[in-house]
Structures are given as structure tokens and as C-alpha cells.
Amino acid sequence: MPEISDGVVTLRSTNETGQFAVAADGQPVGRVRLVDAGDAVAELSWQINETYRRRGHATRAVRLLVGHALASGYVRVEAYVDAGNLAALRVASRSGMRREGVIRSRRTLDGARHDFVLVARLADDPEPSTRAGFIGLVNSTLPRTRLIAHVVVRDEHGRLLLCETTYKADWELPGGVVEPFESPRDGATREATEELGIDLPIGPLLAVDWLPPWNGWDDAVELLFDGGVHDGATFLDRLELEPREIKQVEFCTLDVVKERCLPGTYKRLAAVLGAPYGEVLYLERGAAVESL
């Protein structure tokens, strides 16, 4: 590779295959390495001497080498970055490399197993300085909170429809996790149709509830939609339950909800039933924020 420079940082090939010395203002400041992984994929790594860190040298060096590699015919340049190395993750992002996932317990460092983040840039990715490139980078780093949409169905006595599922002990409302790029309302409609076997009319939003991390799950936002008031016996006769997910359904009083559901579910539904009709609640852990 010829010597390449952006006017501040210069990369010069060394005797070691794929490794380049990084110089700034004529001084050696670190090294970068590019290894051919086959099938037009290259793996990148870098190291800046501690004295010269936090001056932008790493970002400039990585950006130079990534750009040169892609211009030379590589389709993909990737790197594995220690998940705890926030500075290196920022370097990757500023160089246009998007986060693609976490490789759990990938390598032993200082006697302990570490998770690594896989980052990569493709030849056809927009430049990070462009609007499309910026959006792509930010999308790859933003937190991903699960979105859950449930439907509150009531009978003429004010009882709530609960489902006993095949995969957990506690009972739950019809509905479930919203799929990527699906609206919450569409997700509620789809899940209710799949579980109950009917086209359930979905009414207005009743409540938004934030759920903290729990029992191995990350945090989530749950939306409750109004599923209307129905004649209980007639409604149950219309159902065609999905047997792989739903054992049975039943209209339940709030006391029964408390017995069969998780405490957070009970608090959430009690808040909804106690709210004036038409009021949309904002809850956290099932409780109104002002009462926390």
C-alpha cells in the first residue's frame, strides 16, 4: 500500500504483513492492522500509544485505512471492539463503522472473559458525513427497548379478558411484542387475531407503562389499547384459540387478576380501570408517576 495521509495523520506500511505505522506531525503515535479475512472481507484493529490518545489520531487513522481498503476492492471492513472500551467504540463510529451486535465472551483479557462489539463498514454505506450515513450510524448505536402492545377487553360486568398461556405460569392480556417496523396498534391487532382467532376491533390508547429490567429481560414499554366491551358468553363462543400459545381464556374480576397475574400487571390494570374514560395514563412499573 502506498503511503496515505489526510494532512495530519500518515499511514506507512511496515515489514509485518498488513500492519501500518501511524505518524502525526512526524512522530510515531501508534499502529493499525488490516487482515484479509477472505471473500472480500478485511478485519481491522488499531492501537494508539497512550501519550497520543484523545487527540483524534485513532479516528483519522482508522478512517484512512477503512477508506483505502474499500477503495481497493474490499466489500466489507469489520472490527471487534471490547464492549467496555467506550473510546474505541467512539473511534469506530466516527470512522463510519456501524455496530452490528455483541459477541458474548469472545476473548480473555487480564484473566477474564470479555464481550466484544462487532462493527463494520460496507463499500456501499453512505459517507458518515452525509445525512444518510449519519442516520445509519446513529440507528446502529441507539438503545433498543422492547415494545409490547396488549388489548383490554371487558365484558358487560366490567370483567377483564385474561389468557392462560402455554409458556408461563402467570395469566396475561391478549397481545404481545410488536415486531420491527410494525406500529403498536397493528401489533396489538395482529397478536390478538393470532391468539383469539377473531378480528378484534382495537380502540384508543388507554395507558403507556415503562417496565424495568426483570428476570433476565431488558426494559420495555407496554401500551394498552381498548378492545371494547362485549357480551361475555357470546364473545367467548366466537373465539378460536391458538393452541400452541393459549390454553384458555376467561373474563376475570380485578380480584382474580390479582391472583393470576404478576403484581405489575395487576397494578397496571387497576390503574386503567380506575381512570376516567378517555384519559390516557402514563405509568412506570404499573404506577402513576406522581405516586412513585
UniProtKB/TrEMBL annotation:
The protein's Enzyme Commission number: 2.3.1.-
EC class (word): transferase
Alphabetical keyword list: Acyltransferase, Hydrolase, Magnesium, Transferase
PROSITE patterns registered for this protein in UniProt: GNAT (PS51186), NUDIX (PS51462), NUDIX_BOX (PS00893)
Necessary cofactors: Mg(2+)
Keyword Transferase on entry: yes
Record-level Gene Ontology MF annotations: acyltransferase activity
Domain called N-acetyltransferase: residue spans: 1-124
Annotated Pfam families: Acetyltransf_3 (PF13302), NUDIX (PF00293)
Lineage: superkingdom: Bacteria
Listed SUPFAM superfamilies: Acyl-CoA N-acyltransferases (Nat), Nudix
InterPro entries in the record: Acyl_CoA_acyltransferase, GNAT_dom, NUDIX_hydrolase-like_dom_sf, NUDIX_hydrolase_CS, NUDIX_hydrolase_dom
Domain Nudix hydrolase positions: 143-274
PANTHER family for the chain: GDP-MANNOSE MANNOSYL HYDROLASE (PTHR43046)
Protein name, UniProt field: GNAT family N-acetyltransferase
Organism listed in the record: Tenggerimyces flavus
